[in-house]
Structure formats: C-alpha cells, structure tokens
Amino acid sequence: MPSAAVNGIRLEYETFGDAGAPAILLIMGLGMQLLAWPVPFCEALARHGFRVIRYDNRDIGLSSHFDHLGVPNLIWTILKSRLGLRVASGYSLDDMADDAAGLIDALGIAPAHVVGVSMGGMIAQQLAARFAGRVRSLVSIMSTTGDRRLPPATRAAQRALLGRPRSSDIEVLIKHYVNLYSVIGSPGFATDPDELRARLEKSLRRSYHPQGVARQMLAIIAAGDRSSDVRAILAPTLVIHGDRDPLVPVEGGRDTAAKVPGAKLQIVNGMGHDMAAWPVLAAAVVGHAQAHH
Q1: Which of 81, 82, 96, 254 has the fewest CB atoms within 10 Å, i.e. is most exposed?
Q2: pTM score of the predicted model
Q3: How far apart are CA 139 and CA 57, in angstroms?
Q4: Closest listed residue to residue 226, CA positions, set 123, 157, 80
C-alpha cells in the first residue's frame, strides 16, 4: 500500500475505483486500522462511480506512531474528566483532522466527500468545521459531539473496551477482540464467526499497537464537548446511528444531527457499534454523496 507525507508524519492509505472519479475519504475509529472498512463496502462505493480512500490514522496500523509520548493512565484520565478537571493530550482530534486535510491535499482530491465512523466521525466533524473548502459532504456514523450531558457507554461496553488481553499471543488477542465485538456489535445484523476471526487475525498480524489506542482515547477525552465546533459545519451532513449501540448510545447521533446545521438523521434499527450493517451504510453514503456532488 502507498503512504503519503502529511502534516509532518506518514499516513498509510489504500484506494478503490477510478483515480479521476469524485473522492470519498473514509476515516476509521478508535484503534481501528484501514482494514476495518470492509472491502465489499469500499467496492460498493467504487461501483457507483467514486474513488474511495481508506487510511490508517496516526498512531495506528502502518502510519506514524507516537511512542515518544508515552502511555497514558486512562483510568486516572477518565476520573479527571468526570471531575471536570483539564485533561492534556500529546496530540488532539484537531491534529488528526489536520492529518485528514493534509491527505486530501496530498492526493489532490479536494473537495472530498468525507465519511467517519466513531472517533473517525469526530475527526470528520472537526475536519468539516475547520476546513470547509476541503469537504463536499459529510457522513458521521455512530459518533458524537462529546457533550457531557449525553448518556455514557453501558458498563459492559466500557469494561470490554478498557479490558486488557492477558498477553500478546495471537490467539489470546483474537479471543479478546471477538469478545469485544460480542458486546458492542449489531444484534440485528449477523456476523459470520469465521469471517470475523479471519478479519481480526489479518488485522492483528498487520499491526498490533495498543499504546497508540490509548493515546487516541486520550485525544478523545481531552477534546471534551465539541458542540460549538460542529455548529460551524457548512457541508451537507448525514448522521447515521444504530438504535442498539452500547458504546456510543443513539442519543449521541441525535445530538449531532440537532447541532449540525441542516443535518439529516438516519437511525438504523438493530445496528450496534460495528460495520456489520455495511450494506445499509453503503447505500446511505452513496445516496448522500450523489445528492451533493
């Protein structure tokens, strides 16, 4: 896969479709590599006449890592946040939005349709708010504004997300992530266990970098409430959320849609916090991009 020099770092990326077609930039969530965008999802967008770009965010996958920043104490950080104390991070969601803007520039695809999932939705929101000229349309999926009044993740989802594997043995890691998806996944959309296991193994063998996940989570916590930022978004926006999301409850999607000017909201019944509903998501993304190209 190619990489691009962006914002002082290198970002690993992959493309689908005709290089001259209108571009859709895909931004993945916390700790997830570009592989987390299902190939059939990317191919579906490309079949409808788009150039699709998926990439590894900073500190994950094959993009630049930030190990010199150390590993944060997330339990203490979460406690500080809940107490209303200031949380500092080595890099911010705005820095990650700068990365996305730089990749758009490096590939010469401005303005691009931008699609973000979970933390990627937060990055996409900041990108649209701060770089209006680079974003043709926005789709924010299973994400949030960070408003502290919103319901938190369920206790089961929090435990699954913050839990640590007993070792870095590949079988232990696969079991850990299978359990995570059993907690946060989509009850209304079946996932083949063998396919999930194969996908996880491929991702883990490509890269396993838990330190980067912790630093990305720190950036999310430090960002706090971004409601004032999302109110500045000018791009036509579609907000998609599952009604069975235990990690970012559906109220996060409703709040985002209410605060982004003119945003439309699509609630997907049976969808949790994964990409199992990708055919529904692909159809929605294509429809939104076609309507605003």
Answers
A1: 82
A2: 0.96
A3: 18
A4: 123
In this structure, the dihedral spanned by the alpha carbons of residues 146, 151, 156 and 157, taken in order and rounded to 10 degrees, is -30
Structure tokens given for 131: 């770089």
Token couple for 287 = 């429809």
Question: Residue type at 175?
Answer: K
Beta carbons within 10 angstroms of residue 235's beta carbon: 26
- Rounded Cα–Cα distance for residues 235 and 212 (Å): 30
**What pLDDT is attached to residue 73?**
84
**CB neighbours of residue 26 within 10 Å:** 26
Q: Both tokens of residue 105?
A: 């520039």
DSSP 56: P
pLDDT at 83 over 80: no
Q: What are the extents of the domains in the chain?
A: 3-153+209-291
SS3 141: strand
> 53 phi and psi, to 5 degrees?
-120, 125
